[in-house]
Amino acid sequence: MSPQPPRAPAFLAPGDPPAFPDPRRFDGEGLVAVGGDLSPERLVAAYASGVFPWYDEGYLPMWWSPDPRGVLAASDLHVSRSLAKVLRRGDYRLTWNRDFRAVMTACGAQRAGGTWIFDEMLEAYCELYRRGRAHSLEVWRGDELVGGTYGVQAGGLFAAESMFHRRTDMSKVALVALVRSLSRVGVSWIDVQFVTDHLHSLGARRVSRADYLTRLEFARSADVDLAELRPTVGLDMSV
Counting C-beta atoms within 10 Å of the first and last residue's C-beta, which end of the chain has fewer, N or C? Predict the structure, then answer.
């Protein structure tokens, strides 16, 4: 039997129902759909389907589910000796959902080659935050925001979107705190979309899209409340 040709991405019109085609039907590049909007309902449906938006300002929204996917499990988290010293030093303060907009803005500001976090995206995710569907973790020194990360929740799924630092190692502190804090409330792995060298050094790994979607099916049905999460780097755990 000859292989099936790559399936063309679906076109979504603004106002169409917030639904996406099965990502398994598309090639490894993973462009599942084009168009639609960034309504809260569509964004939540995307993440629950294993899809995320990624495109440049001025273009139609583009919705992706690449193969492979990047995940970081709490059991795989790698903390180097030098990072462990930073964690123990404790010259920082962690908060949860204290300043989502500032974290997301800072994540967009640090991209030398451009950013996908433009105004339309910022406002859409801030609305998700107001609805309790997106969350941020902040790292402070005094009153200065020196690092952080944010992401989207769908049941027991947490899709980490980006992170930033203004002081050395503070994005790593944010990620360690995120993984360990979520693990304590039952979220055993996070979606990191792509595995960069930086994420790989912290324990992220690639899994097939099929494996990811199977994991997602179980995770999204979990009843997890992140509203009152208390972030910690887990110094009582093995580092």
Answer: N
CB of 207 closer than 8 Å to CB of 191 = no
Ramachandran quadrant class, 97 (left: phi over 0; alpha: psi -120 to 50; beta: rest)? left
DSSP 58: T
Based on its alpha-carbon atoms, the radius of gyration of the chain, rounded to whole angstroms, reads: 18
Question: Can you name the CATH fold of 70-219?
Answer: Aminopeptidase (3.40.630)
Structure tokens at 105: 């803005």
Domain ranges for the chain: 10-67, 70-219
β-strand 93-96 against 134-141: which pairing, if any? antiparallel
Structure letter (DSSP) for residue 198: H
pTM of the model: 0.93
Tell me the CATH architecture of domain 10-67. Answer: 2-Layer Sandwich (3.30)
Q: Which of the 8 DSSP states describes residue 74?
A: G
List pLDDT tens digits, range 188-198. 999 999 999 99
- What is the CB neighbour count within 10 angstroms for residue 140? 17
| Separation between Cα atoms, residue 108 and residue 116, nearest integer Å | 7
100-109 helix and 119-130 helix, angle to the nearest 10 degrees = 150
